[in-house]
Amino acid sequence: MLILSIWNLLFALLLALSLINFLLGLYTLNLSSALCLNWNLFTWGSSMVDFTLLLDWVSFTFISFVLLISGSVFYYSGEYMEGELNMPRFILLLLAFVTSMGLLIFSPNLISLLLGWDGLGLVSYCLVIYYQNYKSLNAGMLTVLSNRVGDVFILVTIAYMLNYGDWGLASWLGDSPFLKLATLMIVLASLTKSAQIPFSAWLPAAMAAPTPVSSLVHSSTLVTAGVYLVIRLGWIYDFWLNDLLMILSTLTMFMAGLGACFEFDLKKVIALSTLSQLGLMMFSLSMGLVKMALFHLIMHALFKALLFMSAGCIIHSSKGWQDLRLMGNCSLMIPYISSCFTVSNLALSGMPFLAGFYSKDLILEMALFQELNSLSILFLFLSTGLTVAYTLRLIYYVVIRNYVLSGSSNMSDGNGVMMKSTLGLTFFSIIFGASISWVMVESPEIFLPITLKNLTLVTCITGGVLGFLISQPSLNSKFMSFFSFSIWFSSSMWFMPYLSSQFLINSPLSKGGSWGKEGDLGWVEFYGGQGLSKTLSSSADSMQKLLSYGVKFYIFIFWAVVVFFVLS
Questions:
Q1: What are the structural domain ranges in the chain?
Q2: Is pTM, for the whole model, over 0.70?
């Protein structure tokens, strides 16, 4: 009961903070003003190391939704993690994660931003390895090393910005060619945190964490930190990396959509859908649509957290099963959770008048309205169709078809805590798309021919038909036998997990071992610390023996001379 009261207290506190920040965001947006707080920590030469907080409508709005989702996840964890022996550690890790995310959101300075950035990476590693087994360890190492690449890029940027004597993002205003290297480093860092190609392998692997962690960390906060950093940068600096972002984001969308269509792990399918939506956000940033990217980021955080939480309820009710092939008929067994699961999936696929529709459809129409190459448009709409395909496949496998598990008749919605925690997010996933679009996005006038206007609808219908076809076991077996290599290639994320782990690590580890034996344990140690220690020790022993024997010899000679003179 004490643990449940702590969860409830945290939920109430985070919900109140979320409401306060949302109202502050509306107030600052209405006034078109911002407040910057700056503390000078110390001065190093001509450079001042500052701790900076930027309080504007972007940071207030984003942190309000982060706190809302965090409060729902805390309340949800009270029942999901019931019986956990290390509950205080779990609570402290989640609180540390929310604190790091808040520090990242409010920091426009690379020094203070690095604290939140590194805090996210460290705490996410601790949460991924929370269940202590070999699978979690491997996933945690892949996660922390991939994110460490982004940390190195930011550290290099901090060292490079010593030339300017300031690490604030506001100092990047201007067209200096020397700032291009700094923007490249920041964009590469954001690609690692947001799991874009070629750093995509860690996001599905991080699903080894508990489901509440996945709904908070790997849907709405950690993976969106990279997108948020590019949004902050896009407001003050005109990108010269738009083409690079567009290529990588379209490839990421397409790769993740293909992989999700053939994946059977429920949490990994949702992780791949997150990867696809992150690609869409980066694509909108490559077109310069910064506000639309932020709008889709917030809407995606709402319905993706709801999708993870409802999927966690289904896994919890299925006695821990995550395989889609062993699920089904949840609409009769757990009707409320199945409704939340369906609503979140439909919002993800862009069903009209749900939260995802207002952000996704606007980005797709703006892509058609702008001058883009045909290949980018082709990959964008193929990825949109694949999104509808794997969402309908999920709904079919989990909600509609007859159940497979023999014990699934014992499924239930639990004690009601998890149901109540999904209620608010379901409500927001339905109404917040229209509400926030009136406030945040200045709707542009888009004039398209009727064929392009209906292209999104035709793509979604085609993707729905494809999702229905690949869900049928008879058609699926024939299809998989005919395109076995292509499906293997797609379902393995284009072999990216293998290329990110064994392919890159095997040679350095073996070389490091041989160099360690030859160097640190070989001639370096012989002529270095251990050899010098042995030489000095032996020299000291010899000197000690020589001195001790010499003293004894002199005493013997002295007494011999004395005795000789006495006797003579």
A1: 241-493, 505-567
A2: yes
